[in-house]
Structure formats: structure tokens, C-alpha cells
Amino acid sequence: MGHHHQHGQGDGHGHGHGHHGHTDIDWAELAEHLEEQAELFEPLNRRAAAWVAERQPEPGLVVDAGSGPGVVSTLLADTFPGARIVAVDGSGPLLERARSRAERLGVADRFATLEAELPEGLAELEYPADVLWASRSLHHLGDQRAGIAAFAERLAPGGVLALVEGGLPARFLPRDIGIGRPGLQSRLDAVEELWFGEMRAALPGTVAEAEDWPGLLTAAGLREATSRTFLLDLPAPVSEAARAHALTVFRRRRETLAEYADHLDPSDLSTLDRLLDPDDKASLYHRTDLFVLAAHTVHLARA
């Protein structure tokens, strides 16, 4: 659902990167969706990275913790032309895509990958990081407080941790779309909250933790914790890439909802089916009122 996977990251409360769906996630299968989403979200990520660069203009080492296929890792290489970039992820196939992307974009000479599980795999880094970027990877760790502490430990003195968590659920359609009961997206968000809670509950060693990200950064001994939210605003009429993203998000939601059908009105399920039917004029394939509006929050703190 979402996280989109949002989750791109573009859906759910920040877990829209499309990483979700089932709790044991086949990341490689999702590579294409993750790439598509991150490319769509590039303007947002570029502004977020520029904000990080205001705090840390000339890092020697930038680490992307939970890099996936490396779309943001290579964007960080662009933002920090003097830095060495290390993309860290638990999935070898995704890191392969990151490496070929770095080659394609001409930054392979200062780009490395580390196949390792977060957070303990960060101990394998040879040097402390001047910037550690963690976008929606923390909420996949059972113990998020321990995760932040592990991130903080890998920072060089004065190094910056940039944590992307939270934000707002993405919006794709007006409240009343002319079919079904108005307000469908809010009701889908409520089911996504349930799904996200169960995803967290099923993680190994999961710990219930209030999601006070600046508070958790401060508790880990970091200073100057501050947050800023960045907007992705793609108004109607959208590009084919944005339409494809919306379709992927709604398709994944439809799969997830099969498990939560009892939490939704049957009319909402039939509306969702119509939105996904290429032969239906009211579907996402044909709608002229489709847009993408998403907000991701970045929490920054310094070692």
C-alpha cells in the first residue's frame, strides 16, 4: 500500500515509498516502482538536499542509509560534487541498479555501495559520515531509537543526520470524483494507518515509540534538531510518469485492501476497482483531474 510507498515515497504518512505491501518485502521486485517514484520526487529531494547542503556545504563522505536503487544517492552526488558517496542497502539487486546509475551519470569514480542490513551494517563503513541521509528506512527498523543512535554513532564531529520521516499523506484526486462516496482517499489513509501499524508490530524486536523525531535525535546526543517539509506539487494535467505513479500507488493499495476489506465500505472497493479499470472512462487512466500533491518532512541534527 502506499509507501508508496509512498511510498515513493509519496503516500501514507510518509511511508509512501511503495516499500510496503507485505511485511516481508521483495525489494528487487519493487526496484522499478522505487525508481519511478524517486525520479518523480526528484524536485522535492533536490530541494531537501540543498537544505542539507546549507548546513553542511562540503562533506567528504555522504552516506545514503537505505538507498534502494540509488536515485537519491546519485542526486546527493550531484548536490555534493566534492564528496564520496556510499549507498547502503540490504538488497544486492537494488545496489546493482545504484551502481549502474552512478556509471550512467558519470559519478562512479566517487560512488561506492555497501550491502548491509541497517542499522548494524553501518559499522562496516570505513570512515565516519559528514552527511548521513536516511529516507524512510528508519520506520522499517523494530527499534527506531536504537536505529537513530546507530546512525548518530557513524557521524563525524559536526556531521549531519538527515532523517526523512513523516510528512502528509499524498493526494491524487479531488474529494468528490463523481463516482462512489466522496472522501475516498481519507478512508484509504485510515486503512493504511492500520496496515502501517501491523507492519511495525511484525518487525523483529519492535519497540513502541512516540514518533517525536526531533526529540529522538536530541535523545541520541545530537544538537540543533530542526525540521522542514518539502512539497511535491504536480498539478493536473499530469505527465505520463505521474499518472503511472498514481496507478502504481492505487494498485498496491487495492492489493493491501484485500486483507482489510472488512474495514472498508464495499462501495469504496468498487470505486477503487473502477479507478483501476483501463476501459472505464472514470478511471485513473483517463481522468483529467488527476494530480500529485505530497509533502515529505526532513529532520536534521548535528553531531
UniProtKB/TrEMBL annotation:
Residues 63-161 form the Methyltransferase type domain. Keywords: Methyltransferase, Transferase. One of its GO terms (biological process) is methylation. SUPFAM superfamilies: S-adenosyl-L-methionine-dependent methyltransferases (SSF53335). CDD domains: AdoMet_MTases. GO terms for molecular function: methyltransferase activity. Residues 1-23 are annotated as: Disordered. It comes from the Bacteria. This is Class I SAM-dependent methyltransferase. The lineage of its organism: Bacteria, Bacillati, Actinomycetota, Actinomycetes, Kitasatosporales.
